[in-house]
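Data card: per-record layout.
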Amino acid sequence: METSGSASANVEELFSVKGLVALITGGGTGIGLMMARALAAAGAARVYIVGRRVDVLQAAANSINRPSVVVPLYCDVTSKISLESVVSVVETDVGHLDLLVCNAGIGGPQVKPPVKGVTSLEEWRDAQMAVRVEDFTNTFAVNSTSVWFTTMAFLKLLDAGNKKGRGAGGVTSQVVVTSSIGGFNKAAPGGWAYGASKAAATHIAKMLSVVLPTWGIRANCLCPGLFPSEMAAPIVKAAGGSMVGDGIIPLDKSVVPLGRMGDEADMAGQILYLASRAGAYLNGNTIVADGGRLGTFPSTGY
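The structure for this 302-residue chain is written out next.
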């Protein structure tokens, strides 16, 4: 019995995030909110959720109902001034970060893919030219460019996290980039800017994983498939699914081989693994959590 209890305690410690200080961009909805909820429930000391919609962030914080842990902050991740203002708040409040999750993202302009034998070249070309250049470019600004500058803005706080001593137990400070399986999907069903911007985000995570260990900071990339979120709603609808209701959201197995969307427990498992001692030896990894959806797309053979 004593051995069993000791093993249990070790497992709990292995996946523990007790005392962790984390910041999640885009933390007010969807995957970001799932991560925030999981970290707060698992014992994190502070979880900053940042974004542009203060009312949404406040509602998210209220739903978690841990006011001493979850702190909503306004931030436009495409603005260096805005990023620096959040850095100042965190610096004054706790003085360090253990985990930075670059999760903010937008879907970008959607243009349906051509239908072979139906869509003419002229129709396809006109549909693409109808997209505003600004909207296409802004998708990269939020989904990929912001990953780089958000990381740069918080580097000193991540370094302070290592110096505070958590790294002595093997869990060094870390950047987790939320990318997408869309970054591997050459078919890109409508989100042409989205897919390319997420491919860029995945590559940025890889670059960070090479340079940041110079200062003992890790970087990993999480590429989710379909999880309940504002961005996923139109894709789910097009696939014949529905975002209405709680619990498991079923999808046709031709869309996701496991026959469902990812849920909160699936995402909680990913972030707790990455943020705890269990995932402390990960650096430069790309974790695909998609129920097998990527296998239904042309994704390799570059």
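Known properties of this structure: The longest strand covers residues 218-224. The chain has a mean pLDDT of 91.

See the next section for split statistics.
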